[in-house]
Amino acid sequence: MSDFLCTLPVIAGLLGICAPSTPMATGYVEGEYVLIAPVETARISDLAVRRGDRVSAGQTLAMLETADALIAVRQAEAALEQTRSQLENLKLGRRPEELAVIEASLVSAKAQADEALKVYQRQKDLLGRGIAPQSSYDQAASTLSQTQALVQQITANLEVARLPARPGEIDAAEATVKQARATLDNANWRLENRKLSAPSTGVVYDIIRRIGEVAGPSQPAVSLLPDGAVKLRLYAAEKYISSIALGTVLSVRCDGCRADMTAKVTYVSDSPEFTPPVIYSLENRQKLVYLVEARPDSQAEQLKPGQIVDVVLGDAGK
Questions:
Q1: Is the pLDDT of residue 45 over 90?
Q2: DSSP 236-247
Q3: DSSP string spanning 64-129?
Q4: Which of 68, 95, 140, 191 has the greatest number of CB atoms lying within 10 Å of its CB?
């Protein structure tokens, strides 16, 4: 029986019933799960997947309530329209109806000025002939000056009303439009993120929150295991650790795995630890080991989280 078990490297390593012919390290497969959470807190309104479902990149996993996000979008759209209207108003100047009122006032002022000029000329003639007093002439001259000044004032107001706003005011209005547009973009982005989608192809590992529960940035709704998102956590004996470095390619062995599977070392611990219970055996218990992490090759989809594996360390320790 023991001879048969020695042909199975994983079982033999766990039980310690026979010594491996080559230096080996034992460990297990660890999944690198992705927790899918919304960018802001909201209640889950629909779940589109179940635990164990296989999903593709971009596929909808869950939907969150959107009422408040839709209100924010409408408010942002209204604010943007208001700022655009204000900008156009500054660029065009006064409305035609307002210009018509100023033009009518100018016509009335010119008529008053013409009448004042006639009175002034008549009083001047009478004063020259000694018929009218000086006071009448002075009053006519003063009225003429006032009406002419009023014509000049209204003429200037009409010219200003026909001009657009000052460049500084227009620049400020344009900046307000940009700000309103950015607010709308942000509101639309928040609305779009009320739909939780799969970032990559993989398997739904767990449904963390159900319909009616609240999800948020620190409250994920779905746990996803992307394809190939696994790594090996290995424990190598102290006498072998000096020959293991970042980038070292290891030959992987496990039940049901292909014989040519390999993994590349991505991490080597600087400090030792006691052998973890998962790899206790008669041979290595109570011995110090070093944690080594390795990334499997393209055949990683064959490995499942929690699966026991061992690797050949080649000439390590010789």
A1: yes
A2: EEGGGGGG--TT
A3: E--HHHHHHHHHHHHHHHHHHHHHHHHHH-S-HHHHHHHHHHHHHHHHHHHHHHHHHHHHHHHHHT
A4: 140
Backbone angles phi, psi at 178, to 5 degrees: -65, -40
φ/ψ (deg, to 5) at 175: -65, -35
pLDDT digits (tens, 9 = 90+) for 163-190: 666 777 778 888 999 999 999 999 999 9
Alpha carbon distances (Å) from 90 to 128, 162, 167? 54, 11, 10
- The rounded Cα 168 to chain-centroid distance in angstroms is 33
Give the amino acid at 131.
I
Burial class (CB in 10 A: 0-12, 13-18, 19+), 299: middle
Residue 131 CB burial class (10 angstroms; 0-12, 13-18, ≥19): exposed
- Of 42, 37, 38, 48, give the one whose Cα is nearest residue 66: 42
